[in-house]
Write a structure and sequence with these properties.
By secondary structure, the protein is of the alpha+beta class. The chain folds into 3 domains: 178 residues, Uncharacterised protein YcnI-like PF07987, DUF1775 (Immunoglobulin-like, Sandwich), CATH 2.60.40.2230; 89 residues; 190 residues, Jelly Rolls, CATH 2.60.120. 21% of the residues lie in helices and 30% in strands. It contains 7 helices and 20 strands. Strand 1 and strand 2 form a beta hairpin. Helix 2 runs antiparallel to helix 3, helix 3 packs antiparallel against helix 4 and helix 4 packs antiparallel against helix 5. The longest helix has 19 residues. The protein is globular and about 75 Å long. Bound molecules: calcium ion (2 copies). The site of one calcium ion has 8 residues, from strand 11. One calcium ion binds next to loops.
């Protein structure tokens, strides 16, 4: 199998992780002689296509067709996804999750109700992932359902074959992180390699391959002559041709072509990425050892010094930003209930950068991670923090952002965290998220925001260019 040089190590690594039975003829094993149905009794076709996804995200939807000649119904579907964060959705009665399968990150769908298996001759769609990154070829695996063999009384029951020896594999389109080298020649070299790959596996017809390859080659020559405008024309022509190709070709080549155009300085509009929190909770001096991490609200109020903690997955932020620059980062909170007691001219909330680590289900007034959050005692051998009293506060003294709350305010409150997100990404500040509190916790003024357990979760809106 030929793979582009830049992709070779990854493909080989993926092949090693997911099993390489699809690359080489299967050697007979002792397992083949046991009466369990073998993997080759399942014949499936997996189709991938792009689906709309917000901002900078890529949405992929997979269709699983079980061949009429199969002797098994399909019941497990795995696609290699080499990303720290992505969303997985599945068809009805299939459980979809981010999983580690044989030490390999993978989107994993498993039927949870026998009625939903994909019978021979049937097709099921709706296996979806949403992620920020770029598409590339990945391996998938599908395992069939089989009844255990009948066993006579006294006969030894044989161990069923594992997923890895009793599943079939193939190549489809997945999402991977942005490439580390985004210089124009590296990006075009990647695009040329992916185009060749799409042609090799039959996602692009030989006739169309010539046109696509010619466009990328023209762009590479233009870059060699420092003619970025000419290079952009080549890639624009490439993208025009990609429209109308097979679903897999579009899924693989469209995002990569668009990425190349961006890296060639197309001056296109900035893109926007939206992230859900990795953790949120609120703490209160009135119940100093109680955790509120699973509540559907994030409360800020003076009585009991209720303060909100929130943080995002830095790897997910980095994946959105890729090789570009954050031009804006807004923390958006949706008001679930405004107690409308902010006085005639309103009162302010301050958002501070936290400087100590904490966990969503362990954070209390007393510490960042109570080891026994279910009891009324502080169990904080290593994570105590000084939310009041003596000691250094676990947040940066100068607030990152301040917002005025007023009676009657409803909807979304936005806090500008661009400087902090940039500092977190650049490593000049450790990322423990933020604390939101009343500037002056004396006078009245209370508000509940939706937590990530609610329908109006906080979000981090990133604009990158
Ligand atoms: Ca929470
Ligand atoms: Ca405790």
């Amino acid at each position: 199998m030929w793979v582009p040089r830049s992709m070779g190590p990854r493909i080989v690594r993926i092949a090693a992780l997911l099993g390489v039975a699809w690359l080489v003829p299967r050697a007979g094993t002792a397992q083949d002689s046991i009466p369990w149905p073998r993997a080759d009794r399942l014949a499936v076709v997996v189709r991938a296509r792009l689906v709309p996804a917000g901002g900078d995200s890529i949405g992929l939807s997979y269709e699983l067709a079980n061949g009429g000649a199969s002797e098994q119904a399909a019941m497990t579907f795995v696609v290699r996804i080499d990303l720290p964060a992505y969303r997985v959705a599945g068809p009805a009665l299939w459980w979809g999750s981010n999983a580690v399968v044989q030490d390999s990150a993978a989107a994993h769908w498993f039927v949870v109700d026998g009625r939903a298996v994909v019978q021979p001759g049937a097709t099921l769609s709706g296996f979806q992932i949403t992620a920020v990154g770029l598409t590339e070829p990945v391996l998938y695996r599908v395992q069939g359902f089989h009844q255990p063999p009948a066993v006579a009384e006294g006969e030894l029951v044989q161990t069923p074959p594992s997923f890895w020896t009793n599943s079939i594999a193939g190549i489809s389109v997945g999402v991977a992180p942005f490439p580390p080298d985004s210089a124009p020649d590296a990006v075009l070299s990647r695009l040329a390699a992916l185009t060749t790959r799409a042609c090799d596996v039959g996602w692009v017809t030989p006739a169309a391959c010539g046109g696509l390859t010619g466009d990328v080659e023209a762009a590479r020559q233009a870059v060699g002559q420092a003619d970025l405008s000419g290079a952009r024309s080549g890639i624009q022509s490439f993208l025009n041709q990609v429209n109308g190709l097979s679903d897999e070709a579009m899924a693989l080549l469209k995002p990569n072509g668009a990425f190349a155009l961006r890296q060639l300085g197309s001056g296109g509009p900035p893109s926007i990425g939206i992230l859900d929190p990795a953790g949120d909770t609120y703490i209160r001096s009135g119940n100093p050892n109680q955790n509120q991490g699973t509540e559907s609200i994030l409360r800020v109020r003076p009585d009991g010094d209720n303060r909100t903690l929130i943080r995002f997955d830095q790897a997910a932020v980095a994946a959105v930003v890729g090789t570009r620059t954050v031009t804006s980062a807004q923390l958006e909170l949706t008001i679930a209930e405004n107690f409308d007691n902010w006085g005639p001219s309103g009162r302010t909330l301050d958002l501070h950068r936290l400087t100590q680590s904490w966990t969503e289900t362990g954070a209390t007034w007393s510490c960042g991670d109570d080891l026994e959050p279910g009891d009324p005692n502080p169990d904080c051998p290593a994570t105590a923090w000084a939310m009041d009293g003596s000691g250094t506060r676990p947040w940066a003294a100068s607030p990152t952002a301040t917002v005025l709350m007023t009676n009657g305010a409803r909807g979304v409150v936005a806090l500008d965290v661009t400087a902090d997100v940039t500092a977190y990404l650049g490593g000049s500040a450790a990322d423990f998220g933020w604390l939101l509190k009343r500037t002056d916790e004396g006078p009245s003024g209370a508000v509940d925001f939706g937590s990530r357990e609610s329908a109006t979760a906080p979000r981090l809106v990133l604009t990158v260019q």
